[in-house]
């Protein structure tokens, strides 16, 4: 049964989320009132997910709700920030109670992991589109930026790469294997885990950082451009999950897509040689998975090397919405 806009807000969003002492006024007025902590800088990010572009039309609403918030949390993770509040703009073709129940459950299951408060938003009718704006904070002057890498810095990534790309290839039939045989890959696509703890731990250690949303090579290139440097990436050192390696061994032609497919929502960051020991310590203390995949150079060129040290040419290096070949 359809519900009205105000019933929708009251029933599915007004009473959810974590109460926070820094929220003076949340949902229910024309705007929210917030009290940022003293000595902190605000960090704000926004992302939009569109059905058929960012997720297939048959994606379950729980996963859409989760992912809409996760991609924003990933941006804050790359800045080393602590998340605090978010707003939601939701465009729906219809106000289905069953859909809204599952969407809001996915959204708040993740929000509650990080003590986030939903403090406002908007609802409209139209093609399914979800926009989340998130805000958090970081001690003044301590945010991780894309710029800052220097020659000799080591390049690292968190977690493993390529699972989400493989899931999408399975769902779209690009790989002749039933998608249901790989539930772990599907979960990485629909319920990515933002690396908030890792990002915050990298403050004062990483010289720069970025989240991997459009593909490793594309996002690493953004970081290198901001730092005015280049890098060499060692392809045999790229971390893949067990299932991803199984598919890669079976279909070796998919290797390039794993480097450029996007939707990983891991972090890529650089660390100067004199801080590598400290990085190893925090990885061991917190059981973080940090993998060294390359080294920064002064060539202003991003090169991919195979096990023999030979340059491997990679065609498409990442996702872009307005590429002419899309």
Structure explained in plain terms:
- This protein is α+β, with helices and mostly antiparallel strands and 326 residues long.
- It has two domains: 5-139, 60s Ribosomal Protein L30, Chain: A; 154-305, Phosphoribosyl-aminoimidazole Synthetase, Chain A, domain 2.
- It contains ten helices and twelve strands.
- The protein has helices at 5-12, 61-78, 97-113, 163-171, 183-190, 196-201, 216-227, 242-250, 255-260, 276-286; strands at 23-25, 33-34, 40-50, 82-92, 117-125, 129-139, 154-158, 206-212, 230-234, 266-271, 290-297, 302-305.
- Strands 8-10-7-11-9-12 form a six-stranded mixed beta sheet, with helices on both faces. It has a four-stranded mixed beta sheet with strand order 3-6-4-5, covered by helices on one side.
- Helix 4 (163-171) packs across helix 5 (183-190).
- The radius of gyration is 20 Å and the shape is globular.
- The two termini are 38 Å apart.
- 41% of the residues are buried.
- Mean pLDDT is 90; it is low at 318-322.
**Rg, Å, rounded:** 20 Å
Q: In terms of structural class, how would the helical and strand content be classed?
A: alpha+beta
Briefly note the CATH topology name of the largest domain.
Answer: Phosphoribosyl-aminoimidazole Synthetase, Chain A, domain 2
The chain-level mean pLDDT equals: 90
Q: Biggest sheet, open or closed, and with what strands and sense?
A: 6 strands, mixed
CATH homologous superfamily heading of the largest domain: PurM-like C-terminal domain
Number of strands: 12
Order of adjacent strands in the largest pleated sheet: 8-10-7-11-9-12
> Which strand-content bin applies to the residues?
25-35%
Q: What is the percent of helical residues?
A: 25-40%
Integer tally of domains: 2
- Specify the number of helices: 10
Which runs of at least 5 residues are low in confidence (pLDDT < 50)?
318-322
Shape: globular
Terminal residue distance: 38 Å
Q: How are helices and strands ordered from N to C?
A: HEEEHEHEEEHHHEHEHHEHEE
């Amino acid at each position: 049964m359809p519900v009205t806009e105000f019933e929708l807000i009251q029933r599915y969003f007004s009473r959810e989320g974590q109460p926070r002492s820094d929220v003076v006024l949340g949902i229910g007025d024309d705007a929210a009132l917030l009290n940022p902590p003293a000595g902190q800088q605000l960090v704000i990010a926004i992302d939009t997910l569109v059905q058929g572009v960012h997720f297939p039309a048959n994606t379950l609403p729980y996963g859409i709700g989760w992912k809409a918030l996760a991609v924003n949390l990933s941006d804050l993770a790359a800045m080393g920030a602590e998340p605090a509040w978010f707003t939601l703009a939701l465009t729906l073709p219809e106000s289905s109670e069953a859909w809204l129940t599952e969407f809001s459950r996915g959204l708040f299951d993740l929000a509650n992991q990080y003590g986030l408060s939903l403090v406002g938003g908007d609802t409209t009718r139209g093609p399914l589109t979800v926009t989340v704006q998130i805000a958090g904070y970081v001690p003044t002057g301590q945010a991780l930026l894309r710029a800052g890498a220097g020659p000799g810095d080591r390049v690292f990534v968190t977690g493993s790469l390529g699972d989400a790309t493989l899931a999408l290839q399975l769902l779209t039939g690009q790989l002749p294997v039933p998608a249901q045989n790989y539930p772990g890959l599907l979960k990485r696509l629909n319920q990515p885990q933002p690396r908030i703890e890792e990002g915050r731990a990298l403050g004062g250690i990483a010289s720069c950082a970025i989240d991997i949303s459009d593909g490793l090579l594309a996002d690493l290139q953004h970081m290198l451009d901001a730092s005015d440097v280049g890098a060499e990436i060692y392809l045999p050192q790229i971390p893949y999950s067990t299932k991803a390696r199984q598919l890669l061994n079976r279909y070796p032609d998919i290797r390039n897509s794993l480097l450029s497919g996007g939707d990983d929502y891991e972090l890529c960051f650089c660390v100067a040689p004199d801080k590598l020991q400290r990085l190893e310590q925090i990885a061991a203390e917190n059981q973080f998975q940090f993998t060294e995949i390359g080294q920064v150079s002064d060539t202003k060129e991003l090169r991919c090397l195979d096990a023999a040290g030979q340059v491997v040419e990679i065609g498409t290096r990442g996702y872009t919405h307005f590429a002419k070949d899309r």
